[in-house]
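name: query_chain
kind: protein
chains: 1
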Amino acid sequence: AALALDNGLARTPPMGWLHWERFLCATDCATDPSRCVSEQLFVEMADVMAAEGWRDAGYEFVCIDDCWMAPTRDEHGRLRADPKRFPSGIRKLADYVHSKGLKLGIYSDVGNKTCAGFPGSYDHYDLDAQTFASWGVDLLKFDGCNSGTLELLAEGYRRMSLALNKTGRSIVYSCEWPFYLRPVQQPNYTEIKQYCNHWRNFFDVYDSWSSIRSILDWTALHQDSIVKIAGPGGWNDPDMALVIGNFGLSWDQAVTQMAMWAIMAAPLFMSNDLRHISPEAKWLLQNKDVIAINQDPLGKQGYQITKDQKFELWERPLSGRAYAVAVLNRQEIGGPQNFTFSVTFLGNGLACNPACSVRQVLPVSRSWGVYSWVSSLSVEVNPTGTVLLKV
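structure:
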């Protein structure tokens, strides 16, 4: 049987924009058309992504999340878009997105209803895959609500993977499989990677520091079981949504999310309003050096190598014998603090042997010069902030 890896997709973590988190399930277009989950929202976001450098920075997917559907399937059993909010239909929307040099993502659910109560794909996997392919869809986010037993959940994720590949269209497959398994059993990541291109491990990201912090804590706690499986074709998704440019994060916390999602080799899907975003948030989200770390072709996920009461030290092996290094200050009180560590910590002692150059990438770009393998680095980091280095 064809498996997810056979389609050659997601050789690096996918990047794009999706409506969930910022726009949730807003369906009242009469009251607030600019924030409603509708054709208009995705057309306008595609326009901005093409015109304002987002596509050129690597953000290629425009993704529809839950709440796009009509409340019932059509007379042939097919899913359909809400006719008032998507009057032209998904095929026309996909054509428009493609005309901008972008790709369209869509959402469905392995169970009989989506998380918001719209029709799910249970017992319709082949039909729904064919429908999405006929519309020109390029990515499917497949949720796990209302799926019944764990056996039905697993069977549904496998069947939709095979159904997508059977269409002959290249469709990135974004799964929530391990997130719904974890309360009951340890996921089999080797099997999941056979079927999915990326898979969500943790709760929905919120526009808050506590949410970002909890995702990082969970990832560090479980890194022994998840880091080794990530690589070209399949990625751990800590919940992909970048909430940078919204309301809940300070500047230092926004820097931390961008730096740490790059270290974790996470899919980068912004959930914000690109029509109204600050120049600072745009600079951070479009930062070529950070994106290059996230998209590094070696495809190794980073991991935490040490922590104390105030600081965490993470590294990610990169191509060309380089390393990305993140120093995170976990304190939420006081001012900037210094963290000093020996470069022998990095790369099992090999990153700086016999010497290395160090460049700071975030929060500002600057060269730190050349260091020998017996050197120490001293890094000043703001509370809840991160300094990202390339060694």
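note: The first strand starts at residue 15 and ends at 18.
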